[in-house]
Description:
Layout: H1 2-15, H2 22-38, E1 43-48, E2 53-54, E3 62-63, H3 70-81, E4 85-91, E5 113-116, E6 119-122, H4 124-142, E7 146-151, H5 154-167, E8 175-179, E9 186-187, E10 222-225, E11 228-231, E12 234-235, H6 239-247, E13 252-259, H7 262-276, E14 280-285, E15 292-297, E16 301-306, E17 338-340, H8 356-382
Helix pairs in contact: 2-5, 3-8
The structure holds ligand PMT.
Ligand PMT is lined by residues 67-71, 179-180, 182-183, 185, 236, 238-240, 255-258, 284, 289.
Keywords: Ligase
Domain DNA/pantothenate metabolism flavoprotein C-terminal: 42-95
Family: Belongs to the PPC synthetase family.
Amino acid sequence: MATTLDAAERDYFTNNPPPKDLKANTTLAREFIGRHADEGRRVVLVTSGGTTVPLETQTVRYIDNFSAGTRGATSAEYFLENGYAVIFLHRQFSLLPYSRHYSHNTRSFLDFMKEEHGRVVVDEQHQEAMLRVLRQYEAMKRDNQLLILSFVTIGEYLWNLREVAQLMQPLGPKAMFYLAAAVSDFFVPQDRMVEHKIQSSEEFSATNSDAKGNTLARPPAARTEGRSLVIDLEPVPKFLKQLVDTWSPDGIIVSFKLETDPSMLVKKAQYSLNKYAHHLVIGNLLLTRKWEVVFVSALEGEKWIRVPQNRRTKSFSGVESMVGAADAGREKQDSHHSIIADQGAAPQGEPAVEIESLIIPEITEMHTKLIQQAQQNKTSQTI
Ligand code: PMT
């Protein structure tokens, strides 16, 4: 079984070419990791945003997903605040740490500005908040603590993940992987991808040829049949296994599990932890992800993190009444069950709390324990 999986992963990198900027990215990452390793700092790779699945080589159409990169960009800020160096591997044009406060907003960034004596200044009501963000941003730049890399497609994501993970190996347990990106589960392999735009009318039906003009050996994964567009995707191999076993055997690995059905969340998170035997799975539901998550780990069992009711950030897409639904009736069954920062603890009128400000200190503490554990194991092996 393991060999079949390994082969699927090996074949992936043989059959799907590396992105053009991979070399430039690895040069930057090597220098960044080396510098922070010399200074004894922890380094976290945060992945963020959704991967696309192109349907044509000269891509006009692609499959995408909902992720805006809020979780990743916000978490990156709190990791920096907790002393980590951060490699932020994100979907191009998704949210970025710090600038996220003023981009992708319902308002334009220009609404934060005004003209005063022929100069552009920040409006009085935004001064305090923007100054705070600007100071954090400048401190991070001064200390060279953040490296920003980007991907668009699933292929670009996987190649970058593999290369950066391998470069992080010398950090041992000081390396952490925080895999918040929404990664495509299905894709079009290179040998089933047409070169040119899929025609919407059969009269102009494409020739099913690749970049060299050769007819594809297998039918294209995306094609028109009659008046329909037929898309027949193949599974992306699960790279978590490869990351844990080979690319980063000593690194600390935090994966995410996204579900929409509350009854599946803890089960699936637990399943993932058992299957890949890594350190922590963070489960979240699509509709409550800004207010609650569940940690599932061998170290601490099941632990819910919830923003108190009167300190929750606003969300247009979230459904607050669903908070607690994935946890209903579970407390009494599980002795390892605990809840951090539950409802009703804060007085009305307090500022909103981002859930990542609760998640990252918890992870930092867990990371300290895991580093100590790794050191103890090493010492007992040498005695
Ligand atoms: O960006 P936001 O709008 O803030 O949303 C944040 C989020 C909901 C996307 C984020 O919190 C989250 O849950 N990210 C993970 C979503 C996801 O891909 O879940 P999954 O069940 O498909 O995958 C689970 C894990 O397997 C992931 O950590 C992924 O890295 C890994 N995986 C996935 C596919 C694949 N081929 N190989 C993998 O190893």
